[in-house]
Each structure stands twice: as structure tokens, then as C-alpha cells.
Automatic annotation (TrEMBL):
The keyword Ribosomal protein does not apply. Signal peptide: none annotated. It is a lipid-anchor. The chain holds residues 1 to 172 of 245 of the full protein. This is Ras-related protein RSR1. The keyword Hydrolase applies. Belongs to the small GTPase superfamily. Ras family. Keywords: Cell membrane, GTP-binding, Hydrolase, Lipoprotein, Membrane, Methylation, Nucleotide-binding, Prenylation. It catalyses: GTP + H2O = GDP + phosphate + H(+). It comes from the Eukaryota. GO terms for cellular component: plasma membrane. It comes from Pichia kluyveri. GO terms for molecular function: G protein activity; GTP binding. Its EC number is 3.6.5.2. GO terms for biological process: regulation of establishment of cell polarity; signal transduction.
Length: 172
């Protein structure tokens, strides 16, 4: 079985940890601590291939550190998460994507764009169209609106990025 390294990135409070735990453990745990950075592993089968995912749930305390450089360098797939209730959190992803491209030296990188907390209709600051517009700017990376709370589109988003890694392996 092969190992694949995924990295979950985005502003504090957008739901990175809730999404990761929902995907890995199938439960919604709300113990918000923006400073906890942890890694998880999960075995799944994608298109008939057994994969061992190592998922790093980052905490964006210091954005431009050597640590961050290192895990971006090692990461094979990236989940870039904003919250549909926080306009600024989408803007913050632009710099994060630039950083990934700079470190990787290419823009051909497995990425999904995630607009989380889509269940919070009353607090919405961003419509799906705004996520779609960013995904188009980014070479049409797949875009998902998710709810970690209600497990909407969570598995789909993680599996999508794995599928992109697998496809890239075939190309090489
Ligand atoms: P992180 O800093 O990106 O890891 O954010 P967390 O995963 O810790 O989530 C921050 C807060 O947002 C928590 O208090 C969660 O309750 C809330 N949250 C996360 N995901 C969702 C979601 O899909 N829907 C709703 N309503 N709240 C969420
Ligand atoms: Mg967190």
C-alpha cells in the first residue's frame, strides 16, 4: 500500500480540524483550539487502489516558517479551506496557493478548494459563485462547498485530491 501525504490549509477557524476529523473518524467534534496541529492517517480505497493517507491538519499560527516550507515540500495534495461565512478567509487562500506554487516550482499540483460551513445560511458572506470564480482562476481546481457539521461533500473533497495525485502518478 502506498502512502500519500495530504495537507489541509486555510485561515484559523474555517473548519480544517472539523473537516479532517469528520473525514478520518466520521464524527463531528467541536473542540476548537486554533493552535493544535496534528496529523492523522486513514486507509482508503480509491478507484481500486489501496491508499494510506497521511493528513496534516495545520494551524496557521506562523505562516512563513521553515516548518511550513517543509510540509508543503513534502505534501502531495492540498486542501485549501475557507469558510463561506468569512470573506477574508477566501482572500487568505490566494497567498497560500502562491506559496505552494513557489515551493513546488509548478502550478500543476493536486489541490481542491473548499468552502466550508455551507450549513450556515444566515451567516453566509460568500456565494458559491465566488468559490467557482477562484477555482477558475486556479486552472479550474475542483471546488466543493462542504459542511463538516453535516458531513456534506467531505469525503468527496478528500477523495478528489487523492484521485488527482493518482492521476499525476500515471502521467509521470
Ligand atoms: P480550524 O481552525 O480551521 O481547524 O477550525 P475548526 O475545525 O476548529 O472549526 C472552528 C469552528 O468552526 C468550530 O467551533 C466549529 O464548531 C465550527 N465549524 C467547523 N466546521 C463547521 C461546519 O461545517 N458548520 C458549522 N456550522 N460550524 C463549523
Ligand atoms: Mg484546527
Amino acid at each position: 500500500m502506498r502512502d500519500y501525504k495530504l495537507v489541509v490549509l486555510g485561515a484559523g477557524g474555517v473548519g480544517k480540524s472539523c473537516l479532517t476529523v469528520q473525514f478520518v473518524q466520521g464524527i463531528y467534534i467541536d473542540t476548537y483550539d486554533p493552535t493544535i496541529e496534528d496529523s492523522y492517517s486513514k486507509e482508503i480505497e480509491v478507484d481500486g487502489r489501496a491508499c494510506n493517507l497521511e493528513i496534516l491538519d495545520t494551524a496557521g499560527v506562523a505562516q512563513f516558517t521553515a516548518m511550513r516550507e517543509l510540509y508543503i515540500k513534502n505534501g502531495q495534495g492540498f486542501l485549501l479551506v475557507y469558510s463561506v461565512t468569512d470573506k477574508k478567509s477566501l482572500e487568505e487562500l490566494l497567498a497560500i496557493r502562491e506559496q505552494i506554487i513557489r515551493i513546488k516550482g509548478t502550478s500543476n499540483i493536486p489541490i481542491v478548494l473548499i468552502g466550508n460551513k455551507c450549513d450556515l445560511a444566515d451567516e453566509r458572506e460568500l456565494e458559491p459563485e465566488e468559490g467557482i470564480a477562484v477555482s477558475k482562476q486556479w486552472n479550474k481546481v475542483p471546488f466543493y462547498e462542504t459542511s463538516a457539521m453535516y458531513k456534506m461533500n467531505v469525503d468527496d473533497a478528500f477523495i478528489d485530491v487523492v484521485r488527482q495525485i493518482l492521476r499525476k502518478e500515471v502521467e509521470q
